[in-house]
Structures are given as C-alpha cells and as structure tokens.
Write a structure and sequence with these properties.
379 residues, alpha/beta, seven-stranded parallel beta sheet, six-stranded parallel beta sheet, 18 helices
Length: 379
C-alpha cells in the first residue's frame, strides 16, 4: 500500500520513522512519500520536503513566512492528489496538518486519514476537536489522559502507548556503570547534577544562566553536566561555561547523563518524561517573558493545571514546576536542596514515577499504531 506522511518537526520525524518501520513489518509492500526529515528518509521512501523548510514557531515567524507556508500547503495538497495514497498519516504539527486533513476529506474522499500524536488541544484551542471529528478517521494518542478528554467530546481515540517508553527501553549502554560513564567522558568520579535547558537557542538563553547560578552553591560535592541539544553547535554553549569550571557540556548522551545523575534541572516538554522514566529526581524550570502576565494567563486561559507531562499524566503534582513568576534562582536552589538531601522527598517522587510507568504501559507504541492503521485499511 501507499502511505503519505506529514511530520513538520524533529520529534515528528523521529516518531514517524519508527511508525514507518512498524508499518513495514505488517505490510512488506509499503511505499512512502513524506514531508519529514533525515530519520524518515533513513527508514525508506521519498522525502518530498524537509521539515527545516517548514518549522516556523511563534506569531512573528509565521507572519513573516506566510507566503512560504501557503506555498508549502498548496504543494502538499497537489502532491497528495497526484500520489493518491491508500492512507494519509499526519504527525502532530496541527497548524499545517489540520488544513491538509480538511483538504483530503473534502477533495479526496475515500482516502482514510490517520492522526498520530494528537495536538495538545486539552491545553488550548479545544475547539479543534470539532475538526478532528469532522476530518480525521482515527486518532492515535500517546498520552493516556487524552482518552478521557476526547471521550468527553464523544470522539473515540486509541491510546497506543508512548514512544518515549520505547526510546528509554531501547537506549544504548543501558547497563553502563558510573565509573564507565566518567571514564568514557574524561570527567571526575563526582556525583552529577544534570541540566537540560531546552532544545532551542532561545530556550537555552532563557533558562541556562539561572540554572547555572542556582547550582553554584553545590560545587563542592557535585559536578554539573549540560545535555547539549541536537542541532546546536558546541560553540553556542561556550559563553555559559566561563566562570563555571565544574560544568561540562556533552552532546548525544542525554539518556546516559540522566541515568548517572543524582538530580536534574529540566525545562518542560518530553525531557521531563524522559527524566522520570530514568528515575531521576527533578525540578521543572522554565523562564518566560512577562512572567506575571504569563502566570495569570496560564491560570485563567489555559485548560490544564500543569505544564509538565509527569504531572499531567499522574493527575497531581509529582515534580515541582517553577515557571513564569515562580522561576527564580532562589526557588530552584531551594528545590534542588530538597531533591539531593531529603531522602523522603526523593523517595516519594520516585515512587510516583512508578505510577507514571504503569499509566504509560509497555513499550511498543509504533507497533500498536501501525496495527490500528493496518486494521482500518483492511476492513
């Protein structure tokens, strides 16, 4: 069968590439065309447009590149019509993908449309559920609480498991000892505090200086390792290392760093989930512009009580969230002190991590997603 897949970001490229491999297990004749990235290309098929040409985040970048975005939409629609696939699979990236979903349903009737990794409509833009119900044949969710959210809207979805569980289970050097880790990286055998300051330059600029300032007081007993973000050049981090001799930046080793850490300072996002699955006590740190206004907006405009996936999945505060007006060096330092030195506090958090694992379920998200897609196509 022929599949057309659209992933507009790096995370979508990763998850879509795994889904492609899972589909091939069930369909040896599977052929793919896609908007995506290098990982999808490695999985096999025809890369039509790279996500680097599409990834515009925020209001101003979108406005400045409006013509390019419209050209990409028009090109994608023509591509799908010309290829006439047996299925269209959309991966997150809602601003673009919902427009494609509408087009496929209205102009190319009879082509089943699947959405893998639901946009976060439970946090904002809840009205988009109407579009899902109208244009999407099967929604494949990776967050367990989304099932109840969509059920409230009378829209059945499939929870297929979470790809991060798969990534942690399949990680390299899972049995590495602390001594092996330090020897491999040429660092001293001193307890590690991990700093995960974000995946984009602006996030790192906002979060890392305060994180470094917060850990200064722990320099006698610990060393600090920054997990370098993929796609960001090492030179970008050099100014942050000045004045912090205990700080090292390591690239391509996030899971290894976390697995050997006593605690972690983590920006929100998938990193909070990865940290929890590796059983590392953490504090979520996220600086915003206009912190008081941002905090007011979070409390009054968004439809979610938390910003971290750990707390959202567990349905209560498991990890402390220091963001907007609560993001201060003093608050980060105080929470880190608790994580490192109050055993009951660490233990309670790690016990809650076990509950998180049970809610997420076993590895195999892409295999289960592929099974849902294949079953629908064979009906």
């Amino acid at each position: 069968m022929k599949y057309y897949i659209i992933a507009g970001e790096a995370s979508g490229d990763l998850h879509a590439s795994n889904l492609m491999r899972s589909l091939r297990k069930l369909d040896s004749e599977a052929r793919f065309r896609f908007f995506g990235g290098d990982l999808m290309e490695q999985a096999g098929g025809t890369l039509v447009k790279h996500y680097r040409e599409m990834a515009y985040m925020g209001l101003m970048p979108v406005l400045l590149h409006a013509r390019t975005i419209l050209r990409n939409l028009s090109f994608c629609k023509k591509e799908i019509a010309s290829y006439h696939p047996d299925a269209v699979i959309l991966v997150d990236y809602p601003g673009f993908n919902l427009k494609i979903a509408k087009y496929v349903k209205q102009q190319l009737p009879g082509i089943p449309l699947f959405y893998y990794i639901s946009p976060k409509v439970w946090a904002w833009k809840e009205y988009r559920v109407k579009s899902f119900k109208k244009y999407v044949d099967e929604m494949l969710s990776i967050l367990p609480f989304e099932v109840d959210f969509f059920r409230k809207h009378h829209y059945p979805v499939h929870y297929v498991g979470n790809p991060t569980v798969d990534a942690i289970a399949q990680r390299r050097l899972a049995d590495e000892t602390f001594r092996q880790f330090t020897a491999a990286n040429g660092i001293e055998e001193k307890p590690v505090i991990a700093l995960l300051a974000g995946s984009r330059k602006q996030e790192i600029r906002s979060n890392l200086p305060a994180m470094l300032e917060a850990v200064k007081g722990f320099a006698d007993g610990y060393q600090f390792i920054v997990a370098g973000a993929p796609g960001i050049e090492p030179a970008f981090y050099k100014p942050y290392e000045k004045g912090f001799p205990q700080v090292r930046v390591l690239f391509g080793q996030t899971y290894r760093i976390l697995a050997q850490s006593e605690a972690a300072l983590v920006t929100s996002g998938t990193a909070t989930l990865e940290t929890a699955l590796l059983n590392v006590p953490q504090v979520v740190c996220y600086r915003t512009s206009l912190p008081r206004l941002t905090y007011w907006g979070f409390k009054h405009l968004l439809h979610t009580p938390y910003i971290s996936l750990v707390n959202l999945i567990c349905g209560r505060e498991v990890v402390k969230e220091l963001f907007a007006k609560q993001f201060t060096v003093e608050n980060i330092r105080r929470e880190l002190q608790q994580l490192l030195h109050v055993q009951s506090y660490r233990g309670n958090m790690q016990n809650s991590y076990q509950e998180l694992r049970e809610k997420l379920g076993e590895p195999g998200a892409s295999d289960r997603a592929a099974a849902v897609i294949r079953h629908r196509l064979l009906i």
